[in-house]
């Protein structure tokens, strides 16, 4: 890893932007803290001159201008000069600023900084290319040794951000609001006796789902956690049993569930489809119907069997969501007649899946047009829509920038205080931070509908029902909600 950037004439001609969503904390009268992107690096401590240098990175000044003005000045609390800062702050591990002729992309405001973050992570990990069909399963089986900090540092999920009661969720948690909406759908008119949650994280969804149901609604039900990552199972079982479920756990891959045919009433798959097996197919393989590997051949066989429309504009290479297709096939096998499943994940409806770089691994968008077609072809009735609309979230609710929360947590740790990564309204954040709040500069809030917050509108809900059960006389009628039909199945 390069420890500094050579300030060549080419670099000096570039403009310098301070990365947005940056929070600065004033620890003492003449000492400010900034958090580098890499948690392994210590907090960057700057003095007033260093804070001025950071402020001067406004996209107008060139690196040469900043070097002339601040290069020989002491900017750090340990004697670091302005030159030292300019040589390091734009490196991936620091990424406090960006040097370039233009912003990363002209999309949101002045720049599409999430694309820059993607580039930083690719360069940081050294894995710009497709990482292979076995990468995700290997990561979840072998590389997650502990549950501690995983959903705080590695892959923060929507359900993790809303694991505590939130003003944005009607004063409920994600799991309790989920229970409320499943009840509205009539999914508890016939109490599910055998529930399976695949990839249950730490168990918050199961715990809060139970809290949103009455003891009578849970009575007689068995809740089984199926997770490929063994360290998560203990936490899932502890939370599930604490909440009142009769719970069991098994280490299993959701693409090959070790469950009997027609044995399950309800499956919950929350935010894990993007962790399932991707394959990189070629246009030539599709045209020939012959895969270069057994896994590619399996993907092509699914495409042929399901008569999956890939469209006319197939690129020379593309990512295909083999794992999610396998999983929906498994759902058809293990669900009882009348059995149901709720699938939640981020994804797209057109084109092909793109990679999303996370620390240590890459996930892949779900191509929902393909997945919905597969579900219908297998025989499912299905409903589909955006997660915020399904939950009934108010789009103008303002929440603390998630990127800022990570920096604030590091400041709190250095001060010997705890701070949870979660969704905060301004009132909730002010209460959580207490006397540290006035010392922060740069934190701000996004509307929950703003892609800059968490891309929440990219998350979809796919509801599946296997035909065969007698209809419930109390099932609510289908209703329109902003263009989506939520209620009974179509």
Features:
490 residues, alpha+beta, Outer Surface Protein A, domain 3, Rossmann fold, 8-stranded mixed β-sheet, 4-stranded antiparallel β-sheet, 19 helices, 33% helix, globular, disordered C terminus
What does this structure look like?
There is one protein chain. This protein has 490 residues and is an alpha+beta fold. α12 (230-242) links the parallel β8 and β9 (246-251). The termini are far apart. The protein is globular, with a radius of gyration of 25 Å. It contains 19 helices and 23 strands. The chain has 3 domains: 9-120, Outer Surface Protein A, domain 3 (Alpha-Beta Complex), CATH 3.90.930; 136-278 and 321-393 and 454-486, Vaccinia Virus protein VP39 (Rossmann fold); 398-447, no CATH class. The strands form 7 sheets. Strands 7, 8, 9, 10, 13, 16, 17 and 21 form an 8-stranded mixed beta sheet that branches. Helices cover 33% and strands 22% of the residues.
């Amino acid at each position: 890893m390069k420890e500094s950037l050579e300030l060549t004439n080419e670099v000096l001609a570039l403009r310098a932007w301070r990365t947005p969503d940056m929070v600065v904390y004033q620890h003492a009268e003449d000492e400010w803290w900034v958090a580098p992107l890499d948690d392994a690096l210590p907090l960057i401590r700057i003095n007033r001159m260093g804070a001025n240098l950071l402020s001067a990175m406004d996209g107008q000044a060139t690196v040469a201008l900043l070097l002339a003005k601040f290069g020989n000045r002491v900017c750090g609390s340990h004697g670091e000069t302005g030159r030292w800062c300019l040589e390091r702050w734009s490196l991936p591990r620091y990424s406090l600023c960006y040097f370039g002729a233009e912003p990363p992309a002209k999309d949101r405001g002045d720049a599409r900084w999430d694309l820059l973050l993607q580039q930083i992570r690719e360069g940081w990990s050294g894995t710009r290319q497709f990482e292979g069909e076995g990468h995700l399963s290997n990561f979840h089986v072998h590389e997650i040794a502990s549950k501690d900090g995983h959903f705080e540092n590695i892959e923060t999920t929507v359900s993790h951000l809303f694991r505590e009661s939130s003003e944005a969720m009607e004063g409920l948690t994600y799991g309790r609001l989920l229970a409320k909406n499943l009840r509205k759908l009539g999914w508890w008119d016939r109490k599910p006796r055998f529930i399976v949650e695949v990839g249950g994280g730490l168990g918050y969804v199961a715990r809060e789902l139970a809290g949103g149901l009455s003891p009578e609604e849970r009575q007689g039900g068995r809740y089984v956690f199926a997770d490929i990552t063994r360290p998560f199972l203990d936490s899932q079982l502890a939370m599930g049993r604490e909440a009142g479920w009769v719970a069991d756990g098994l280490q299993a891959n959701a693409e090959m569930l070790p469950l009997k045919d027609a044995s399950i009433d309800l499956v919950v798959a929350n935010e894990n489809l993007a962790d399932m097996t991707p394959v990189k197919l070629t246009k030539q393989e599709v045209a020939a119907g012959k895969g270069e590997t057994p896994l590619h051949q399996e993907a092509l066989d699914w495409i042929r069997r399901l008569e999956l429309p890939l469209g006319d504009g197939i690129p020379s290479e593309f990512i295909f969501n083999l794992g999610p297709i396998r999983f929906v096939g498994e759902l058809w096998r293990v669900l009882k007649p009348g059995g149901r499943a709720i699938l939640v994940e981020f994804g797209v409806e057109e084109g092909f899946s793109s990679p999303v770089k996370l620390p240590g691994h890459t996930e892949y968008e779900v191509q929902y047009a393909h997945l919905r077609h597969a579900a219908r072809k297998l025989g499912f009735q299905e409903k589909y829509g955006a997660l915020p609309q399904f939950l009934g979230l108010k789009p103008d609710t303002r929440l603390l920038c998630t990127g800022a929360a990570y920096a604030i947590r590091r400041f709190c740790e250095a001060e010997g205080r705890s701070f949870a990564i979660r969704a905060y309204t301004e009132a909730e954040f002010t209460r959580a931070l207490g006397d540290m709040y006035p010392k922060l500069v740069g934190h701000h809030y996004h509307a929950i509908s703003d892609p800059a917050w968490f891309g929440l509108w990219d998350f979809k809900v796919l509801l599946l029902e296997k035909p065969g059960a007698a209809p419930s006389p109390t099932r609510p009628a289908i209703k329109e909600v902003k263009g989506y039909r939520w209620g009974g199945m179509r």
